[in-house]
Design brief:
- This protein is of the alpha/beta class.
- The chain has one domain (2-223): TIM Barrel, CATH 3.20.20.
- It has 9 helices and 8 strands.
- The chain has an 8-stranded parallel β-sheet with strand order 7-6-5-4-3-2-1-8.
- Helix 4 packs across helix 5 (103-112).
Length: 235
């Protein structure tokens, strides 16, 4: 418990320092604890420190964890690649989805969202680094995609998500994050009324906050070295 508490405090301090340097309030930035591959006990320990938002990428693991932690006050975010045949349980079990990059995925999430639940918060994933191995829509296709899904029932389009190229080049990170911010600003000039930039992780959250991140996705700095998954495990 002491380790979890100190890790959470350390990350919150990093966020506060980065926000202060950017002339922003720390409260403008939500810390999303990326709990994928970590056990339910680790999530519970963080929740007992008052943390609320948790991110998962692997569907079966997440479903088991959500059931085991049904008694905690948690907001669950799906942040991984989405397969067509997994949209129904994602739509039913999560509060946010950060990784929509195709119309068909949004349409299937919309159709599967239970009517008794609030609208599912959606972010479009944009390939901000331009790397061929990464998911995400290209910048020049974001506007069309947003226009096609903004009015789908059961969904609320909130903003954009991006993953910067790995490495220690802060200037390059900031360029990529700034491009995502400019993209959001362009969408808002078109009347989209978006409020979310999901960008920045353990190694680049300062650069992301400097460029306007409203959600930073942090796993390693909170939970320690990530547990490797066996090949072929259901996502």
């Amino acid at each position: 418990m002491d380790i979890v508490k100190s890790s959470l405090q350390a990350v919150r301090q990093r966020i506060a320092r980065a926000a202060d340097l950017a002339g922003r309030a720390a409260e403008e930035v939500t810390l999303l604890a990326v709990s994928k591959t970590y056990p339910a006990a680790a999530v519970r320990a963080l929740a007992e420190q008052g943390h609320h938002d948790f991110g998962e990428s692997y569907l079966q693991e997440a479903a088991d964890k959500i059931r085991a932690l049904a008694d905690i006050d948690a907001c669950w975010h799906f942040i991984g690649p989405i397969q067509r045949n997994k949209t129904s349980p994602i739509a039913a079990g999560f509060d946010w989805v950060h990784s929509v990059d195709r119309v068909i995925i949004a349409e299937r999430l919309s159709a599967a969202r239970p009517q008794e639940r609030p609208a599912l918060n959606i972010c479009l994933q944009v390939n901000i680094s331009g790397e061929s191995g990464k998911s995400g829509v290209a910048f020049d296709a974001v506007s069309d995609l947003a226009g096609q899904i903004r009015d789908l029932p059961g969904l609320r389009l909130r903003g954009l998500m991006g993953i910067a190229q790995a490495g220690n080049d802060v200037a390059q990170q900031r360029i990529q994050f700034a491009q995502l911010r400019h993209c959001l600003e362009d969408l808002n000039r078109q009347g989209m009324a978006l409020d979310t930039l999901s960008m920045g992780m353990t190694n680049d959250l300062e650069a992301a906050i400097a460029e306007g991140a409203t959600i930073v996705r942090v796993g390693t700095a909170l939970f320690g070295s990530r547990i490797k998954r066996a090949a072929g495990v259901d996502r």
